[in-house]
Amino acid sequence: MKNYLIAIALSILIIGCENSISSNDDNNILINDYASGSACGGSILNFNDNVYRTTDIGIAPFDKDLNINRLERIGNFQVQIDEGNVIYHAEKINNQIWFSLTNYSTFNQINVVDNFSNIINTYDVGINPGDFAYWNDESSDASWVFIANEGSYGTANGSISMIDQDGNINETEPLGMTVHSIEVYNNKLIVLINGDNRIKIYDISENGLAAPGIEISTENSGPREMVIVNDILYFTNQTSKDIKKLNLNTYGIESILNIDGIPEDIVSDGSKLWISIPMLELYDINNGSKVIEIDIQTEQVINSYDVGRGPEQLELFNNNLYVARKYYDNNFDWNPLFGSSKIILDR
Asked: Which domains are present in the chain?
């Protein structure tokens, strides 16, 4: 009996969030809806030739069926989670994993972890840290890691924390409501401020960001996520429900495609864009189920993939598009359910 119980426990650790696995008729989409009560996070990233997803206490890789293998987990933040904090985001920077942890108020911390789960550095940053961006100057060995501190919900106290190569931390003045995503491009930091419907662009040097920067209105569009291809910034918008593009030479904005739903993440291989659509209407418990593919040259949708409810974050890896999904059981309790999907691309 003891050996039997050990075998069950071991299988649960290996399988992680496994529940219901399916594929479409063409077998080019794999969908795994995890068991109710499974604790997964929203971030998805490639690391050490595997694709990982955040769990409740770290990150862990997918197996071939998109089950999450907790035996190969990196990071262990059980103590912080037990204290009421969550892993809000995780990214790979310089072959290390940067985790943001928060209680959405007074605890806001970055933990840098190696692939053996050793904590290398810990930094206290602004409220609700989310997206990361990295810049380095090879001529001077100067570098910065930028962190988008979204700020308190409904409050214009979002900011950017900056950590240099020596571990020194600086923080900007408040930039607005919900500093949602950031990207480094050609020695510039591009910032999407969702609640204030603005884009800010700063020059970067070894001394940090050159304030006040350039400010561009998105005309109440609700900008969310972005990707840059050949001096053009493509970004999703939750209020205007479209994809817009910003010319990074002229700073002119135009809408290229209206979306049937609320677009969220956006990634590119240089010739195509992929966009996740988790909601059909704002705050509808994530009833959307599509990822669309756009040809950059024609700016037209060339494919639409049904990947299961709540597609949010996307990761391109080895000619596959991985999708981290989250949705809710009803409008009253907002209990989250999780899943992952994989689109086998023909590129």
From this structure: 2-344 (2.130.10.10)
